[in-house]
Amino acid sequence: MTPQTIRITADETPRRGRALKTGIAVVVALLLGAGAALAAVLAEGQRTTATAAAAGPAPELRLGYFGNVTHAPALVGVQNGLIADALRDAGTETLSTQVFNAGPAAIEALNAGAIDAAYLGPNPAINSFVKSGGESLAVVAGAAAGGAQLVVRPGIASPEQLRGTVLATPQLGGTQDVALRAYLGRHGLATEPGGGGDVTINPTENAQTFKLFQDGKLDGAWLPEPWASRLVLQAGAKVLVDEKDLWDGRLTGKPGQFPTTVLVVSRTFAADHPQTVEALVKGHAGSVAWLNQASEPEKANAINAALKASSGAELPAGVIKRALGNITFTTDPLPGAFPQLLADGVAAGVTKEADLTGLFDLRWLEDLHRLEEASR
């Protein structure tokens, strides 16, 4: 099965869409006793599960991801056929892919029914979950931790020197956008989602950010890999903040690690086609395992081949080496970090206070881990 790839940037509308299917509502009368209510919910859950299982695997899975090294599990999983093979084994014959510039654009496509699953940053996933009241998506696995930095022009050596500067992020409300706004806020520098404040933040497509920085029209940017490395190695930027230094491990148990990329699925799609989601998670886990076992040259070659196929451009050897050195590929979504990510989004003014209960649906990942343990 050869994946069909469509490139979508933040300012474009997805080319294909479908109406979201109506979910199954569970109504429990308020006058029921606690025991009867619980029984009704459990019975409805069993019926829903049976209906979903009967639907069988989907004929097609439409997957979104970015052309970033932080999305290497998607890049390699698609390029090397790991995801397509797992899907085909489960009865899903077609894998179609779309390449996005940033998370909010991918979320728009997911909410519109134009894609069924996506690799994206945690903050767009949180925003969608909150806005939909928990109905839009579920995080089914982690993909990458680390790999984001605030890089600036030479001469800026402290956060205080950022006052009056113009900085960029990939897109308003994206994970790096929230991280930058939260960092500035902690140092007493105000920002506004619509522009203005002590520091001006211009959400800008990554390739354009690179060019604007080269032209001296930006003072810096908070970027994922490989764009942070590109600005450092190819445009003379300096690292002011490596985001890993802001995570001490108290929330995740893993110092220096923070979720950069997670795999999400539409809740409607997951309810209708759990077999396909199970296969997607299996193929994804296989890609993560390959990345963690491959040699550095093998990883670089595979990622560059995927980047060339999806965007037509490869990365210089030094850039991809530096980028890979900043990233940990993992299926662990680091859920302990998400309350802090939500709080940062609230402080940045791009999301609202909410309960994140139900954001994660890790049953397929846990089943896979149990099978792996049993086979050892």
UniProtKB/TrEMBL annotation:
Entry keyword annotation includes Cell inner membrane = yes
Query: InterPro entries recorded for this chain?
Result: NrtA/CpmA_ABC-bd_dom
What the entry lists under Gene3D superfamilies is as follows:
Periplasmic binding protein-like II
Q: Where does it localize?
A: Cell inner membrane; Periplasm
Q: What is the phylogenetic placement of the source species in the record? A: Bacteria, Bacillati, Actinomycetota, Actinomycetes, Micrococcales
Family of the protein in this entry: Belongs to the bacterial solute-binding protein SsuA/TauA family.
Keyword entries, A-Z: Cell inner membrane, Cell membrane, Membrane, Signal, Transport
Q: Does the keyword Signal apply?
A: yes
Q: Know the name of this protein? A: ABC transporter substrate-binding protein
Q: Which organism is it from?
A: Sinomonas halotolerans
